[in-house]
Write a structure and sequence with these properties.
Blueprint lengths: L1 E4 L5 E5 L2 E5 L17 E9 L4 E4 L5 E16 L5 E4 L3 E5 L7 E18 L8 E5 L11 E5 L18 E2 L5 E7 L4 E5 L4 E14 L2 E4 L3 E5 L3 E18 L1
Parallel strand pairs: 11-12
Antiparallel strand pairs: 1-17, 2-3, 3-4, 4-9, 5-9, 6-7, 6-8, 6-9, 8-10, 11-13, 13-18, 14-18, 15-16, 15-17, 15-18
Length: 243
């Protein structure tokens, strides 16, 4: 089953003074029909002015993944060092048993970001922060796993991870990224009891018989494979979560 969510149907919430576009109920924007998708609690889009800051907290029991669409930002989670993120990079705030604050401050050109909130599968885990300033681009335009809670996706143990390995989630979930040239496609396999949420960051793609433009999303359930075909050069993010 596929359910399309068009960009112009998103909600708008006020969070820490910032207008956030929401795929699911968040902050002061509530919609009983759009509370979450499986263990995917929220998908939020925001834009920060140069030097602008967005702060959340206190939070617990969620992995907050912030993918930077454009610009640069400094990410900071209570109890951890400040980290630089640039366009295409990813910041994980694993709130675990609780963190007081987590915030992002935009660089001199501002920043736009997309956040995925994933409900943790285990309570009381130790809070964690991980950062990937950016990920190497795949030459074939296929899906790259950029965050995962599955052991088989873990990189070999090393003091420094410099190969773009996925950040480690406390949720049994994945976040994937693909930059797909026009006329080409990216495919992903999963189990039929998983929920998939595909967000088109830019470009134009087809999923099954549906055409999606930049800003649109598709919720997919009961599938074992999804293929995304780009009618125009496209960037997509795909969340794979427990139903």
């Amino acid at each position: 089953m596929i359910t399309i969510r068009r960009s112009d149907t998103l909600g708008t919430a006020q969070s820490d003074g910032l207008a956030i576009r929401c795929h699911f109920a968040f902050a002061d924007w509530q919609d009983p029909a759009r509370m979450h998708d499986g263990r995917l609690r929220a998908v939020n889009l925001g834009t920060l002015a140069p030097g602008g800051r967005y702060r959340l907290g206190p939070e617990q029991g969620v992995d907050i993944l912030t993918w930077l669409h454009s610009g640069t930002a400094v990410a900071h989670m209570d109890g951890f060092p400040r980290e630089d993120v640039r366009a295409g990079g990813l910041h994980l705030a694993g709130t675990g048993r609780g963190c007081a604050t987590v915030d992002w401050k935009a660089g001199p050109q501002g920043a736009s970001f997309i956040q995925f909130w994933l409900l943790s599968d285990v309570e009381g885990t130790t809070p964690a922060q991980e950062i990937r300033a950016a990920f190497p681009r795949l030459e074939d335009g296929g899906f790259r796993i950029i965050a995962s809670g599955f052991p088989e996706d873990d990189p070999e143990e090393a003091e420094t991870i410099a190969d773009g390995a996925p950040v480690a989630l406390s949720a049994c979930a994945r976040l994937l990224h693909a930059a797909i040239p026009a006329g080409e496609g990216a495919a992903y396999r999963t189990d039929p009891d998983r929920d998939l949420y595909l967000l088109v960051v830019s470009g134009e793609v087809r999923v099954q018989d549906s055409l999606l433009h930049g800003g649109d999303a598709a919720a997919l359930t009961g599938l074992t494979e999804v293929t995304v075909i780009a009618d125009a050069p496209a960037v997509v993010l795909l969340a794979d979560v427990a139903a």
